[in-house]
Automatic annotation (TrEMBL):
Residues recorded as bearing O-(pantetheine 4'-phosphoryl)serine in the entry: 39
Family annotation (SUPFAM superfamilies): ACP-like
Species of provenance: Oceanotoga teriensis
GO biological process: lipid A biosynthetic process
One Pfam family, short name: PP-binding
The name this protein goes by in its record: Acyl carrier protein
CC annotations in GO: cytosol; membrane
Domain of life: Bacteria
Subcellular location: Cytoplasm
Annotated GO MF terms: acyl binding; acyl carrier activity
Predominant cellular place of this UniProt entry's protein: cytoplasm
Modifications after synthesis and translation: 4'-phosphopantetheine is transferred from CoA to a specific serine of apo-ACP by AcpS. This modification is essential for activity because fatty acids are bound in thioester linkage to the sulfhydryl of the prosthetic group.
Residue ranges occupied by any Carrier domain in the UniProt entry: 1-79
């Protein structure tokens, strides 16, 4: 999966999970400040990514997620 395809998938999952319009979600969007994601929602999102993409994201990695780009980077690493 290319980075572009992965970004689209991540945006789609965030949009669906948090009921946010896809157009409002950019690669540099900050989860807390820009998308109003709280810690519980981040955990739920992580589980959605793990299920959809069949990967395992470590708790230590989740703690470092600040932006959509961070998510894409982690997932890209897991998928390669």
């Amino acid at each position: 999966m290319s980075r572009e395809e992965l970004l689209k998938k991540v945006v789609s999952i965030i949009s669906e999970s948090l009921d946010i319009e896809e157009e409002k979600i950019k690669e540099d969007s900050r989860l807390i400040e820009d998308l109003d994601v709280d810690s519980l929602e981040l955990v739920d999102l992580t589980m959605d990514f793990e299920t959809e993409l069949e990967v395992n994201i470590e708790d230590s990695q989740v703690e470092n997620i600040r932006t959509v780009k961070d998510i894409v980077n982690i997932l890209q690493e897991k998928l390669n």
